[in-house]
Amino acid sequence: MSAGNSMIIVDSAQPGQSWLRAWDELVEATPGCDVSQLSAWGRVRAEAGYAPHYVLVTRGGEVLGGAQVLVRQVRPLGTLGYVPYGPVIATGVPDRACVRDALAGALDDLARHRLRMLFVQPPEGVDDLSGEMIARGFRGSDACVAPPGSLRIDLNRPEDALWSELGNKRLRREVRRRSWENKGVRVGRGDERDFSVMAELLARTGAHHRFQPYSEEYVEALLHGLGRHAVLWIARYRGTPVVAHLYTLCGATMRARLTGFDRAVPSPNGLPGILHWEAMMWARDQGFRWFDHGGLPESALRTLLDDVDDWSSLSSYVRYKCDFGGSPYRCSPAVESIRPAALRGAYDLAMRTGTGTRLIRAAQGLLRQGRVG
Fold first, then answer.
1. 15 is a domain residue
2. Which pLDDT belongs to residue 315?
3. Residues 167 and 80 in one domain
4. pLDDT the model gives residue 31
5. H or E element in which residue 317 lies
6. Pair 193, 110 in one domain
7. Which of 14, 154, 219, 246 is the most exposed place for a label (fewest CB within 10 A)?
8. Count of structural domains, the chain
9. Contact predicate 256/277, CB 8 Å
10. Quick check: 334 and 141 in contact, CB under 8 A?
11. Which pTM was predicted?
12. What is the span of the domain harbouring residue 223?
């Protein structure tokens, strides 16, 4: 711990349960925060080879701001860390600029003395924090340790208003008539018995899109570890699981996290959208204010935020998200620290070559992937 301006910096991998409870309360109370800053997420990631580290700005026993840094050894690069959707500063905190400066300074100290690379994707609304970190030696980053923005829907409206924004005519018709109920489709929340179902459907999606899916052990660890902060929804056709969506819950927001879909099962069209809609209505009934689609790439954000009429450049998956309506938003600028200068130069050089880019992206993917054991 270190002190300054009556504030105390808690800089520790094990700050103690009282500080962790206070930190979790801050994350849940701050609009736009994500489960990836909760200590429960840190414990889940610890099972996959990460070490959560906490940098907290406190005063009088209260946490005013902070960050959960997920740290991992990545050979041959050394010790890397990343901060998804953090740091976080309490809403309406007095002397916010002092909290911001203390937090930026503490993260800079961590990056200079204990990490070779630190990648930070702040949440929305903390542009000044990104600027302060750049002033201390960080630089802009395109490492994409978390999506740079997303699309969210305001659920604090009548169901008819939400229905009217659906851009897919077939989905609008299905939702209005609930015709899937007469076609052998059953939609509902999953439970512990369905964890393996989620993992299997993720594996089918991974095979279809040619990416390495999360393991069944990691999916189970994620769902068990997050507890009330995660909910699983499954669509079955004639008893066979076809689609599964995993959502995370933090504060007033329900966020889409993972999707598994078995395209080999003959089933009615539109099941992923139907499942999304039902989960959205559940979130609305539970009192959640926002439904977040879980991220958009920078290219899509540029198109949507610039209000471009031509959506031909958008992928089918992005257009699928847009079919639910909502408003796009961009997070505050991502930043990174890569030290020493020789490593930063090698990193930059590698990013300018095809082989180097693939190696760096593989290392960045290792930061985000989930493997137990």
1. yes
2. 92
3. no
4. 92
5. helix 316-322
6. no
7. 14
8. 2
9. no
10. yes
11. 0.91
12. 149-330
